[in-house]
């Protein structure tokens, strides 16, 4: 059975009482053994029983008085401090009893010094229990010594004047000890109170005590926050409502009422306060219900958060302005993209018509009069046909580049290994006479727009295929590697390569590092690949050297899976 904290305390108190009762019976029975006279035994037994009843009644009263309700145990300390409250008085009374038991046990050695153990007992009782504990210990000690140790024993009569003198001296010393320790305790409390007041008065936050709608205490920080010269201008003079803006008075009054009624123990809330000059300030209050002079009250602190609120308002205004600017820029960018789309479409549409006418007439001229053309005339006609074809490729590239930055991105699961295998097989079928060795790392996967990423892979693989055309043993490899915690997908070849000094031109539209008669192309493929990767939030870069091949690497920041994935 699991016991609550309160029940555990009651069990410990019961066990302590059992131990105390057992010790009492043991020592008191030993006392009775020393007497043979039945009348004396009866008298002492009665005194013992009455004393036992008195002590146990005190213990029971203290135990019942200090046990708090069940719901308050969560706020109680884990250890009970024996130097607080009723425990001090109880311990102060028990010390003379312990001294009596020890002195009675060793009386044959101590005799005739009746006060031998009781002087230190009263000293420590007054030190622990203060004035009340010291006086109670003194009275109990005088009674015990007088009855048990001063001749005639077991009687409250005195045979010698010296006994009266010793009782008077001991009583005076006990009172003196009690008064000295009580004064020391008062001085200690005053010193602690002074330190506490200094700490409160020097605090940068405002502290207050509110009772029945008025301030019964405020510190200097509180007065300064609300623009008053000293706390005296507020204490018991101004109601709380005078320091609260009209729109918040009802809410603040309701919070104070709930505190006083015990509906809540602590609360934190904000409101608009009024300074002495009527200017508004933003206040954050932390309050807790407590008893002040025996009546419900609220104690707490207030913070002036006006600067913080103003900063938050500025941040909100800046965010709103930023959102407005972003909206404007987005609208401008959208409009610019629409204009660019219209321009690209118009250019491609307007250029294709004369281009088709030029190509058509050139072809007709070759078919109808090709045999009559001689020398440079036929060469010029072939150049016109090639230029038309080149112009068509440039228009197609321009349209592809435009489409790469338009449309909504999808998030597909991509099997890059399978896609690369398929694209390399298609390139091989287009040029069956070439023998190119390729290697694709299995299990490469990523997240991205399948259509766009396939275009990136095609452009990179087509470049690798093209630039290995003059290599004796062409090789293409597709793999993944880690670079500074980032996963890169790579396409490497051992083809013509390039000079890294001109690498910046690689991804610019219509820029080429090789002559047209060496390797054909429009300079659009890598520019398109870069725009697609950038739209996915990744980067693409190239490394190479002339005659040693090139490696193009790109990243896709969306979660990747499969072989080689980095954590």
What distinguishing features does this structure have?
five-stranded mixed β-sheet, 13 helices, alpha+beta, 12 strands, 54% helix, disordered C terminus
Structure description:
By secondary structure, this protein is an alpha+beta fold. Helix content is 54%, strand content 15%. It has 13 helices and twelve strands. The chain has a five-stranded antiparallel β-sheet. It has a five-stranded mixed β-sheet with strand order 7-9-10-12-11. The radius of gyration is 50 Å and the shape is elongated. The two termini are 49 Å apart.
- List unreliable stretches of 5+ residues: 70-84, 560-567
Helical fraction equals 40-55%
- Mean pLDDT equals 77
Tally of DSSP β-strands: 12
Count every helix, treating DSSP H or I runs of 4 or more residues as helices: 13
Give the helices and strands as they follow along the chain: HHHHHHEEHHEEEHHEHEEHEEHEE
Protein structure class:
alpha+beta
- Distance from N terminus to C terminus (CA atoms, Å) equals 49 Å
- Biggest sheet record: 5 strands, antiparallel
β-sheet strand percentage: 5-15%
Q: Widest sheet: strand order?
A: 2-1-5-4-3
- How much is the radius of gyration in Å? 50 Å
Shape: elongated
């Amino acid at each position: 059975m699991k016991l609550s904290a309160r029940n555990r305390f009651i069990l410990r108190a019961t066990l302590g009482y059992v131990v105390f009762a057992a010790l009492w019976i043991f020592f008191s029975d030993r006392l009775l053994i020393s007497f043979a006279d039945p009348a004396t035994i009866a008298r002492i037994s009665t005194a013992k029983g009455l004393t036992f009843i008195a002590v146990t009644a005190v213990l029971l009263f203290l135990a019942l008085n200090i046990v708090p309700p069940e719901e308050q145990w969560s706020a109680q300390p884990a250890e009970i401090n024996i130097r607080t409250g009723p425990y001090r008085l109880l311990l102060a009374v028990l010390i003379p009893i312990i001294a009596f038991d020890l002195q009675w046990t060793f009386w044959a050695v101590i005799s005739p010094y009746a006060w031998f153990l009781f002087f230190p007992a009263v000293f420590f009782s007054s030190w622990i229990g203060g004035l009340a504990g010291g006086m109670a210990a003194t009275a109990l000690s005088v009674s015990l010594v007088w009855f048990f140790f001063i001749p005639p024993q077991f009687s409250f009569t005195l045979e010698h004047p010296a006994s009266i003198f010793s009782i008077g001296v001991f009583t005076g010393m006990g009172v003196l000890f009690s008064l000295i320790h009580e004064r020391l305790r008062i001085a200690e409390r005053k010193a602690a109170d002074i330190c506490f007041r200094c700490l409160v008065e020097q605090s940068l936050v405002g502290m207050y005590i509110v009772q029945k709608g008025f301030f019964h205490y405020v510190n200097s920080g509180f007065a300064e926050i609300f623009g008053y010269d000293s706390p005296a201008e507020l204490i018991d003079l101004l109601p709380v409502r005078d320091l609260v803006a009209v729109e918040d008075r009802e809410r603040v009054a309701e919070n104070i009422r709930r505190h006083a009624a015990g509906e809540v123990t602590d609360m934190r809330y904000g409101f608009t306060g009024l300074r002495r000059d009527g200017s508004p300030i933003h206040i954050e209050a932390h309050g807790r219900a407590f008893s002040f002079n025996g009546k419900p009250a609220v104690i707490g602190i207030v913070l002036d958060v006006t600067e913080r609120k103003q900063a938050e308002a500025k941040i909100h205004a800046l965010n709103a302005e930023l959102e407005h600017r972003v909206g404007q820029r987005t609208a401008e960018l959208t409009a610019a993209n629409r204009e660019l789309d219209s321009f690209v479409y118009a250019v491609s549409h307007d250029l294709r018509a004369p281009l088709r006418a030029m190509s058509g007439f050139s072809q007709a001229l070759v078919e109808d009069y090709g045999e009559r053309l001689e020398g440079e005339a036929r060469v010029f006609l072939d150049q016109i046909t090639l230029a038309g074809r080149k112009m068509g490729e440039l228009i197609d590239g321009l349209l592809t580049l435009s489409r790469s930055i338009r449309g909504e991105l999808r998030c597909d699961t991509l099997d890059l290994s399978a896609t690369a295998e398929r694209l390399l097989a298609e390139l091989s079928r287009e040029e069956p006479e070439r023998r190119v060795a390729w290697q694709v790392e299995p299990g490469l996967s990523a997240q991205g727009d399948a259509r766009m990423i396939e275009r990136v892979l095609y452009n990179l693989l087509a470049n690798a295929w093209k630039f290995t055309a003059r290599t004796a043993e062409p090789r293409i490899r597709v793999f993944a590697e880690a670079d500074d915690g980032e996963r890169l997908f790579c396409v490497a070849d051992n083809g013509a390569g390039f000079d890294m000094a001109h690498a910046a031109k690689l991804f610019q539209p219509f820029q080429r590092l090789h002559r047209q008669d060496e390797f054909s192309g429009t300079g659009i493929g890598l520019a398109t690949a870069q725009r697609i990767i950038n739209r996915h939030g990744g980067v693409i870069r190239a490394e190479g050297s002339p005659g040693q091949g090139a490696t193009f690497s790109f990243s896709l920041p969306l979660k990747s899976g499969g072989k080689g994935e980095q954590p």
